[in-house]
Amino acid sequence: MVGKIDDKLAKLGIVLPATTAPLANYVPARRLGGQIYISGQVPAEGGKDKFTGKLGSDFSVEEGQAAARLCAVNILAQLKQALDGDLDRVVGVIRLGGFVNAEPDFKDHPKVINGASDLMVEVFGEAGRHARAAVGCYSLPRNVPVEIDAIFEVS
């Protein structure tokens, strides 16, 4: 049976990818009571980084938003796996933490992370509205432009 959130993803043209195992000593998702914490996700597709480089020199804000949206798709894939395939168990998105690999003079970190925030609201409606951080940094693993982690409330 396809759930409401799976149906919404299909209408948005989003197919959640297969999840991959972590590359280090951590887990991709951890449940604590009614919350699930999703480890930082990067803009990878098909097991390969789709974007590499910095905002402000290699990518525009719009390209950064696309990278952030892909991070959010990967977050949803990890979440679905952690919920045994049932995204309808999501009560709400609590928080996104966004890290933007940017040049020192880049100032639009929040606009970049909007790519992920907007997707959460598209998928979950009002329950997708969340607290957030958008932080600039000088580098990220494998030189990806964005990494995002998340906390969800679940039933």
Automatic annotation (TrEMBL):
Coiled-coil stretches: none
One Pfam assignment: YjgF_endoribonc
Alphabetical list of InterPro entries matching this protein: Endoribo_LPSP/chorism_mut-like (IPR013813), RutC-like_sf (IPR035959)
Domain Endoribonuclease L-PSP/chorismate mutase-like, residue spans: 8-141
Protein name, UniProt field: Endoribonuclease L-PSP/chorismate mutase-like domain-containing protein
Taxonomic lineage: Bacteria, Pseudomonadati, Pseudomonadota, Alphaproteobacteria, Hyphomicrobiales
